[in-house]
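Entry type: protein chain
Record version: 2
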Amino acid sequence: MTRTRTRILTLFACAVLLLAGCSGGGDGADDGRITLRFQSLAWQDESVKANKELVREWNAGHPDVRVEYVQGSWDSVHDQLLTSFEGGEAPDIIHDASDDLADFAYGGYLADLTELLPARLKSDIPERSWETVAFGDGIYGVPFLQEPRVLIANATLLKESGVRIPTPEHPWTWPEFRQVTKELSGDGTYGVAWPLKEPVSATLNLSLSTGGKLFHRGADGKVTVRFETGDQVVPRTVHDQVDTDHSASPTTLGSGGSDTLPGFFAGKYAMVPLGFSYRQQIEQQAPEGFDWQVLPAPAGADGLAQGVSPQTLSIAEDSPHKKEAAAFVDFLLQPDNMVRLALGDWMLPTGEQALKNPALHTDEHGWATGTALAEHLRPAPAQSVRGYAEWKDKVATPALQEYYSGAIGMDELRHRLEEDGNLVLARYQR
C-alpha cells in the first residue's frame, strides 16, 4: 500500500469518526442515549434530596433515557424561563406553579399534555386540580403539590386562654376568628400577625371561603373585576383587627412569612396565618419546649374553600423528546414517589392515592389537619386570567397595602380594584 493511499484511508476513517460523533444521541450525546433536562425548583434540603434520589432511580432503570437534574430558583423562575424559551434553551421538564403558566401556555412555549399523559395519572388527580393547568382546550402542566393556608398557633397561649380550638370539622367562622384574636391579645401579645408583604394571593384565595370570586368571565370569554360583598369579608376582617381591635400587629403587614417567626416564638403573636409548608421552618427553628399546633383557616359561607396554585410539571413545546419526558413525569408522580416529594416539601400531594398514605394522616406536625383540608382546595381565582401579573403588581398590591394600613377605605379599595384593574385587564383581552 502506497503512502498516499494510506494517508487517504486514514483521513477517510477520521472523517467517519467525526461524523459519527456529531450524529450520535439526539441531544449531542455520543453514546446514543437521550438526555432530558429536568429543572427543579426544590429548595429545602429534604425536597432537593428527594428529587435527586428519584432522578438517580430513574437513570438506574432507564439507561437509554438519562435525566439531568438542573437546579432552578423560585425567585427568578418566570424571567429565567421566558429567556430560555425565547433563546431555544428551555429544559425539557419544567417545575413551576400553575399561576405562572398562563402566558407560557398561550404563548406556545409549553406542550399540550392531553395526549401525552397516561390514564393512570389523569384519573388519580381530581378534576379541580386539573382545572388549574387548563388553558383554552389544552392541559399544560401536571399539578402535583399543593398547600392550604392554615393558622399556626402557640398551643400554650390557646390553652391558657380557654378559647374553643377549631378543627376541620368545626372551624371558626370569620367573625369568631376576629373575636378570638381579641381574647388572645394583651400583655404584649397580639392575637394574630398577618404577614402580607404579598397581600393579593392570600386575600383572594382565602376569600373563596366567603363566596368571593372577584374575577368574572362573561359569555364572550372576557374577564372583569367585581369587588362584591363576598370579596370584602377577609380584607375587612384584617383591617378591623389591625385598626379597630388592635388584635393584629400592624408592623407585620409588610413582612414575609418567615419574618414573623422570631416574634411568634417569643410570644408576641398567638397565631400566624401561613402556608402549610412553613411547618418545616417552625419545626427546625422553634426553641426547645415551644408548643405549636396547626389549625384550619376560618370558614365562611362556602365553608373551608380556599384557592391554591399547585406546583406543576410541564414539558417544553420545543423538546424533541416529549414522550420520554412524559414517561419521566409519570415515574416521578407514581403514588409512592408523590408522597416522597410531598414529605420533602412538607406539602400535600394532589394525587388521591398518595393522599391516603398513613404518613400524611398523623397528628404530628399537623399533617392530619392539612390533609383534611385537601378536598376543600379550589383553583385560585386568578388562575387563568391573562394580565393578572400586571394587575397584581400595579393595581391590587398597592391598593390592598394601603387599605390594610388604613390609608384608604373600602370604597376607594373597590374603586381601584375595579376601575383601575379593568383598564389593565382590557389590554390583554382585545
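Comment: The two ends are 76 Å apart (CA to CA).
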